[in-house]
Amino acid sequence: MIDYRIDADGIATLTIHVADRPMNVLNHASIAAFDAAVKQAIADPAARGVIVTSSRPEFVAGGDLDLIRHIRTAEESFAAGGPFSRTLRTLETSGKPFVAAINGSALGGGLEICLACHRRIVADDPKIQLGVPEVTLGLLPGAGGTQRLPRMIGIKAALPYLLEGRKADPAKALEAGIVDEVVPAAQLLERARAWLLSDGAKSVVKPWDGKHFKFPGGAPQTAGPTQIFFAAGGALLAKTQGLQPAPEAILACVYDGCQVDIDTGLRIEQRQFARLATSQATKNMIRTLFYDLGEANRLAGRAKDVPVRKFSRVGILGAGMMGAGLAHVSALAGLDVVLLDTTQASAEQGKAYGAKILDAQVARGRLAQAQRDSTLARVKATTEYADLAGCEIVIEAVFEDRAVKAEVTRRAEAAMSADAIFASNTSTLPITGLAEVSARPGQFVGLHFFSPVEKMPLVEVIRGAQTSEATIAHALDFAKRIRKTPIVVNDCPAFYANRAFGMYAYEAMTLLGEGVNPALIENAGRMAGMPMPPLALIDEFSVELLHKALKQARIDQGSAYREQPQDAVMEVMVEQLGRLGRKVGQGFYEHPAEGGKRLWPGLATHFPLAAEQPTLEEVRDRLMYAQSLEAARCVAEGIVTERDADVGSLLGWGFPSVLGGVLGQIDTVGPGRFVERCDAMARRHGERFEVPPALRELAARGGFYRAT
Ligand code: NAD
Predict the structure, then answer these.
(1) CATH number for the 313-491 domain, one of 3.30.70.890, 1.10.600.10, 3.30.565.10, 3.40.50.720?
(2) What is the pTM of this model?
(3) Which of 225, 239, 511, 607 has the fewest Cβ atoms within 10 angstroms?
(4) Residue in 390, 413, 414 with CA at minimum distance from that of residue 311
(5) Atom of ligand 1 lying closest to residue 349 CA
């Protein structure tokens, strides 16, 4: 795993190659091998200096999460994280010069190795990333990252790397002081050798191990850093509502650890690491954001016997908000795009949407002009169906109207090649019904993207009654090709994401209709960790949209339609008041043109406050549990798998990652307790809180993820 070599000049080279894993990762075996190699180099009298490098494209990709996933106790955490931290401290204080020759990305524990070395030289390759992104999975860099980085570059400069998981390319890392040199890749080892043989390598005591260490940017107790801690703590709380233990633990490591000597700081870091590694929040994040998301991105559920389909040309019908975004992400992924609308001007307008995004990136120096031009050149704006010839897939994103969709389906299919797929991006119309006009319903599928397409990573692949398994597999291939995360959903009204997420909006309106203080509703949503309070969110996509869906449901279901508690609230807002949402400047909030929205005081007139108000916890549970229950119903009905339900909730509507997803919440609350609370809510508030029998049985068996 670690190759140890020494040359005639006494330069030892430790080359990392974790052969049994697809990438260099740090786990029990590789850490033990690294420790042995470091000790060998230190003990070797012939070794005057040591180069640490890798023979893989990456330097080290990070810690092996399998190691952390199974940690249950603080002792297990100390046993998992402690030895590596101690190895790096041994390396640092050995008196022998160690230089990191960073040939590829060094992330997490990989960068921590580099930070412990006495010099860092990185290959001049803009694709190389350096960072400690542990926070994004609810962890902290537990091998000195929280201690060495602030001591090297100062607290203020270190915090974005530690708290937000920011990554730097070699040029940025040099500017920030994270590395000492950026050199052409071919000269990397040679330059590392040259430094080890130079005078610079003669004394290798780290500044913080010297007598007169001055903290860059000021010591933690001084005015500047104190202000930084106040500001960072406040900003963090505002952003996370105190629900994210990882950034808080990191801030504590930096604050406490930087007031003491580094050895004590490293012990503080280990303790905070153990707190996180044993926490449910971190386990939830790792399960859903790493393992389950990884499986979804690898298309784990895809039929294995269907050959992978390559895509080079996509047709998009309708160049509105969704079509334009789809054209942009497809072109960015290297596909040729035919963007069709009823007039050339509308089609060109859709293309201009992508141009605007690309231009902004060029202006910010993030994209080369030539790349912008070639991306845009891939998009052909047109009104001609004949241009769809040669497309492997055509996606319609025209008006949400059955007749319009039927017409474009017929015209497109007439122009498409026989084996091409037709996909609908409808948000509400069941796929099986839309496929009725198709001449080849087996090749008709739903691809439900989210708005704005270029930012939202999820796509629901909707299986209609006649959609073939090969079409589903190819739709998944397409999603991967345009770098979206797909989940597979069986056809039903509203599909999965909008059905479960919709409960958040519906419950908020129900609460308002009952006379619950709107500020209480909004704060409960915010404090539960949802990305936006519910009434504010409804204003964003407009109450009118939900009201339209209500009217459609009444038409579709006729006398079978059962009035829901939120229906009356929508009617007041849309029909009586015309307060449709942000697009008209008024909804549950007032949205003045100059910005700065506030809850509309008139709500009190139309939805008078009840004399008795529920507690914050009651409101929060109603808003949050309603979503989990609907998701559990979807799983029980076979609409979606458990894994896709949780991944979909995080990526599709920003459900709090600390809960591991909408089903993860049930396990986190405790399945028994969740069922009990829902039973009580069903008695008080109605059947929407009734627990589906499958969930009751599952709760009795211990929940969704009892094995992880
Ligand atoms: P939009 O009104 O912005 O765009 C629709 C476009 O289709 C317009 O440019 C229109 O000119 C064009 N069009 C209409 N009839 C056409 C025809 N016969 N031939 C060719 N082009 C035609 O709508 P949108 O928000 O982009 O939504 C499009 C579809 O995507 C709808 O089915 C919608 O339900 C769905 N969707 C929307 C969202 C969202 O948040 N906006 C999210 C997911 C799915």
Answers:
(1) 3.40.50.720
(2) 0.93
(3) 239
(4) 390
(5) 9
